[in-house]
Amino acid sequence: MVDVTLDRIAKPAAADAAAGATWQDYFALLKPRVMTLVVFTGIAGLVVAPGHIHPVLAATAILCIAVGAGAAGAINMWYDRDIDAIMSRTCGRPIVRGRIAPSEALGFGVFLSVAAVLLMGLAVNWTAAGVLALASAFYVFVYTMWLKRRTPQNIVIGGAAGAFPPMIGWAAVTGDVTLPSILLFALIFMWTPPHFWALALFRSGEYAKAGVPMLPVVSGARETKRQMLAYTLLLFPIGIGPWLVGIAGLTYAVGAALLGLLFILCAVRVMREDGEETRHRAAKQMFGYSIFYLFAIFGLLIVDHTAVHF
Fold this sequence. Notes:
Helices cover 79% and strands 0% of the residues. By secondary structure, it is an all-alpha fold. The chain folds into two domains: 1-151, Tetracycline Repressor, domain 2 (Orthogonal Bundle), CATH 1.10.357; 178-310. It is flat, with a radius of gyration of 20 Å. Mean pLDDT is 91; it is low at 1-18.
């Protein structure tokens, strides 16, 4: 069925492929929307880290985080091109449309991954480069190639890949990995399951068709909703954690608490909806709020730190 779908999509894309890929196609390989979150949380880790880094080196570190994340996304698209062709939210990606050959996408991703790590190590420090390399390898080999198609806990374990950016930003300044940076890692790590399961709830039919064992497909909506609520409850104290360890002030703590409570309320609302249509609507709203939550809580962290040191 996957091959048939690929053929069906590849035929109308033949004219596009003949015209050659554009820079927009290569940029799309980098998953720019995901990259935005990655870069923002990386900046937050860099800003709140103790010590000083030259602005040029700071910009270089952020560039390396962005390029490394985008490169991992390109390799992910290369590996997942079969299931991407089946799902409506991914069937427009450049490889599936025939805009970029799979081998070109793989080479593009590998080259950028190596370049990002080397530049980070040579220009900033090798601790940050090592964490960046670990994040890329974890996303490609552990999540994409190993977990995604094998276990409903794929996003729980594999979600660690997306939690590294603030730790990389922190290491770029300090040259080490300490408790506060691990806490920032934990914040994103605990945020990822309810964020992604909200998406999986209203896309469960597509995941089932593609053969991806997301939690709603394997365990059903009820168990997924229960775990979403559990993770938002566990996330609440972690969200306040930066204040507890002294890298954020009371303003951050109050804001983080409010954001966390709203996240819990979103999960409760999803939990209470039994009808498929209303459940999907509540899950979509929770998915949208989860993105806002991550931007807002790391934005609070940056603003709080900046205000204190202004």
